């Protein structure tokens, strides 16, 4: 093995198995178990149409006693009425029985097609199989990470090790994309496990702040899913982190989440390029975010990025209809480092040279000034390609 | 000729010529002249980044003395700074000189690529040529309608004749699409000419109401242009319409505008199908409109329509993130007349049969209930195809 093994947090076991929920036969049941009761906090979809597993899990966080997260892919258990709620609960009950804990200490996530009842016989067999396979270590972790994916081209994960107060702490996270990705939330599903000791209230605040500058600032297609769930499990049983240590931990968590969120965009359905969009000079950060979201969602901007065309009129005009105050006379724009527009007036530029620079890099940097305010944001979005359209014309999500 | 000639309003002359602004050599300068001073009112883009011709024209309406509308296609004269303002003014001055009127009685519209200075030598030669060619009648009207188009597959026009108070009144309208189409406005450019006599205040109110239920309810790509302009010119010099007559006229105008707006969608860039989306049960009409706009803009919904896939989870979930209150337990959905979802629960349906019904009709009917309120709206949107993406990846707008 040329790669060094992953550093995984202590006291967690993982499993991922194929239970036949997906027609493809790929892994579709994922189980994460903490040997000790863990602090668990969540951030969930803002969609008003909410899948049963989200309805259930969000009543169970924040918590200090969570033992497991059970996830199925291939079926979202969304828009499934009362049957959906009872199926989500049954999944938790079965896990609780297998690992020996209270049913309410199990969280549940689902992702896949909307509006079909879960094939519970398959799900149940999968839970049994996963419970039997639970293990610490890299192979099990990777299997669990694979089993939460759907249309993703590859697994998404990120691990860290840091030393705080002389103690080594580990963080390991997994996530899945790859369509219905939009703020807020933009994560679809993600679980972050750590063996740090964190107070539940601290953990909730930290996860919300982290989501706001990571998963809530990426977009693939602007469509907020019914199932989005971001969970943080912390199973340490020492003295809770505080002071400078908690700040350092949060910084690490935020960096990890941004890396993971960017993976969602890079692997977005049909994506060929990522735009990293900096909006500045807005009235405040919220205004900057709304402008960035509007620019990032414009099909005309997204196709221009796909074509490596510095078609700046589309970017500037998108900012103008975001519904936030801008100052057209003070607007400025750089694409791939090149100044193109300043104080509301075009500058001479070499379109072919900028196009070549865009082509040479998978990440296209866009810096858009909209006025003289202090509001700013960084935002990531995929481009829009014929692959995205072809894929979603055929695929029933 | 098998087609009957168009019925055009009296006292208007038209011209359309090719001035070389478009590299393709297609017609790109369009002139409409009213022999008498006309009442003129406008509805303009809500984008904060506003093209010079919009800035100029909107200071000149409402008016009772407008004589001409000069339009160029192939260049939007947007984001062009002070040069752009002086070029827009120069266009009006030249027309005024040619037809003999005050410069401020000329309105101007531009459409095409953003951020490049107008090639004024060509524009000026085109205005001279168009002035010399001005004529009443069908040939001239069609030439003028052709010369305002850009990426449109064909010209968009609509004419009507009605009798009010024993007098025959004619209305003739032209419009251009086909991308950067979104509320508000969604028209890009449209001029409606009539020989009716209408009070300017009545005309302005009527045009605003008309825009709200027609051009402001269609979407191709959700990107609001910098140049959108809808003008109504009424050059009658009798007694202004009033009472029942004005109501009948407004009804006719509204129907005409809805027909024209639907043409924009049918001919939207890359469009293969149109969805006609009825949203009902919202808190009020504004809420219904925002929900419809969100559903219509979702790339996942638009690709499902392109694929004739009754992928209803995408529709229901899009309604859930529109930011307006909905009642998930009371939601209902019909696609192509078939009930698919009721009271938040899926109904059994034959997906293949509905898919076939979608395929057999260019217009797909979607009826979405979001609660028990009285708010409702009808909205039209094109689908999202690989043709749209290919086209806009290559085309610099």
Number of spatially distinct domains of chain A: 2
Q: Label the CATH architecture of the largest domain in chain A.
A: 4-Layer Sandwich
Rounded radius of gyration of chain A (Å)? 22 Å
Query: Quick one: how many beta strands of chain A?
Result: 15
Q: Which percent range fits the helix content of chain A? A: 25-40%
Describe the sheet with the most strands of chain A. 8 strands, mixed
Classify the oligomer: homodimer
General shape of chain A = globular
Segments of chain A where pLDDT lies below 50 for 5+ residues? Answer: 183-187
Classification by helices and strands of chain A: alpha+beta
By CATH, the superfamily of the largest domain in chain A comes out as L-amino peptidase D-ALA esterase/amidase
- CATH C-level class of the largest domain in chain A is Alpha Beta
Q: First CA to last CA of chain A: what distance? A: 37 Å
List the helices and strands and how they pair.
Two copies of one chain form a homodimer.
Chain A (H helix, E strand, L loop, with lengths): L11 E6 L11 E16 L7 H7 L4 E13 L5 H19 L6 E8 L6 H14 L4 H10 L8 E9 L2 E10 L12 E6 L5 H13 L5 E2 L9 E6 L8 H24 L7 E9 L2 H13 L1 H8 L5 H9 L11 E4 L2 E5 L2 E2 L4 H9 L3 E7 L5 E8 L3 H9 L3
Parallel strand pairs in A: 3-4, 7-9, 8-15, 10-14
Antiparallel strand pairs in A: 1-2, 2-3, 2-9, 5-6, 6-7, 10-15, 11-12, 11-14, 12-13
Helix pairs in contact in A: 1-2, 2-3, 5-6, 7-9
Keywords (chains A, B): Acyltransferase, Amino-acid biosynthesis, Arginine biosynthesis, Autocatalytic cleavage, Cytoplasm, Multifunctional enzyme, Transferase
EC number (chains A, B): 2.3.1.35, 2.3.1.1
GO molecular function, one term (chains A, B): L-glutamate N-acetyltransferase activity, acting on acetyl-L-ornithine as donor
């Amino acid at each position: 093995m040329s790669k060094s093994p992953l550093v995984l947090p202590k006291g967690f076991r993982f499993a991922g198995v194929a239970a036949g929920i997906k027609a493809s036969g790929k892994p579709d049941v994922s189980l994460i178990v903490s040997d000790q009761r863990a602090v668990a906090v969540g951030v969930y979809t803002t969609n008003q149409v909410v899948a049963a597993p989200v309805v259930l899990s969000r009543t169970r966080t924040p918590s200090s006693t969570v033992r497991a997260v059970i996830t199925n892919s291939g079926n979202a258990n969304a828009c499934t009425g009362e049957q959906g709620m009872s199926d989500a609960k049954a999944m938790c009950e079965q896990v609780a029985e297998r690992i020996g804990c209270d049913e309410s200490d199990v969280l549940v996530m689902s992702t896949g097609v909307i509006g079909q009842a879960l094939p519970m016989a398959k799900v149940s067999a999968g839970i049994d199989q996963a419970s039997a396979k639970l293990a610490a270590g890299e192979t099990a972790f990777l299997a669990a990470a694979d089993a939460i994916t759907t249309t993703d081209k590859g697994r998404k994960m990120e691990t860290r090790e840091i030393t705080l107060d002389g103690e080594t702490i580990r963080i390991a996270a997994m996530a899945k994309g790859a369509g219905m990705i939009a703020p807020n939330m933009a994560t679809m599903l993600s679980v972050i496990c750590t063996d740090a000791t964190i107070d539940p209230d601290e953990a909730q605040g930290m996860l919300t702040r982290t989501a706001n500058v990571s998963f809530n600032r990426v977009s693939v297609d602007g469509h907020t899913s019914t199932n989005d769930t971001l969970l943080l499990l912390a199973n340490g049983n020492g003295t809770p982190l505080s002071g400078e240590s908690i700040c350092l931990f949060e910084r690490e968590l935020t960096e990890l989440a941004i890396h993971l969120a960017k993976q969602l965009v890079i692997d977005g359905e049909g994506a060929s390029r990522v735009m990293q969009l900096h909006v500045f000079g807005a009235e405040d950060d919220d205004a900057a975010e709304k402008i960035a979201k509007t620019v990032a969602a414009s099909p005309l901007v997204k196709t221009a990025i796909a074509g490596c065309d510095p078609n700046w009129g589309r970017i500037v005009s998108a900012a103008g209809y975001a519904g936030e105050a801008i100052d057209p006379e003070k607007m400025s724009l750089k694409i791939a480092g090149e100044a193109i527009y300043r104080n509301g007036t075009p500058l001479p530029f070499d379109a072919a040279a900028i196009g070549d620079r865009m082509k040479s890099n998978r990440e296209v940097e866009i810096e858009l000034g909209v006025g003289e305010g202090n509001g700013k944001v960084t935002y990531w979005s995929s481009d829009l390609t014929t692959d995205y359209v072809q894929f979603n014309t055929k695929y029933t999500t």
